[in-house]
Amino acid sequence: MEQTQIEKDLQIDESALDIECLNQATLAWKYIKLAIQARKVALQAHEHLKTVRSELIAEANKDPETCIGKSKTNAADIEAYYRMHERYKEAKSAKITTELEADLVQQAKDLFVYQRKSSLEHLVTLHGQHYFAGPKVPRNLSQEVERVKREKEQSNEIVKTAMTRRRKANK
């Protein structure tokens, strides 16, 4: 799952809370299914790693002279053989990659099932309390969000500039 798609799906359109609430269950279900699929791929990669390991151990036991270079081997020799073998390294790398992807999708699923749902509930509560209603001119929440983002970016830039000056002064 691509991170930018996750970030896009997490966005809530404050001006269309009714549509966002209707789409929440569908989005949550989408990420639940993705998390299950990613976990399945990770489990398959784990099983593949174990199979490759077993095959390499059997290979080393069958022909230790060719595989390890010794006629009598011990557990450490066999472990060193399979851990250094390219097939094992590739399977291990694939296992790690699929587990990280599964973790990412699991975290995204949790964000949708719990965080985004909670945020929608709070926004709907605020809307019900007329938080978004103004005395004369209604507030454009999208513009407010953008203004806050710009202020944060400016603040971050000021801190970055100050830190750069401090580093140069310390040199």
What is this structure's SSE topology?
Layout: H1 3-10, H2 17-62, H3 64-67, H4 75-84, H5 86-128, H6 141-170
Helix pairs in contact: 2-4, 2-5
Give a concise summary.
The protein is mostly helical and 171 residues long.
Task: Characterise this structure.
The longest helix is centred in the first third of the chain and has 46 residues, at 17-62. It contains 6 helices and no strands. The protein has 2 domains: 3-135; 140-171. Helix 2 (17-62) crosses helix 4 (75-84). Helix content is 82%, strand content 0%. The chain is mostly helical.
- The SSE order reads HHHHHH
List low-confidence stretches.
Answer: none
Which structural class is indicated by helix and strand composition? mainly alpha
User: Quick check: average pLDDT?
Assistant: 84
| Sheet of most strands | none
Distance between the termini: 44 Å
Put simply, the count of helices is 6
Percent of residues in beta strands? under 5%
Shape: elongated
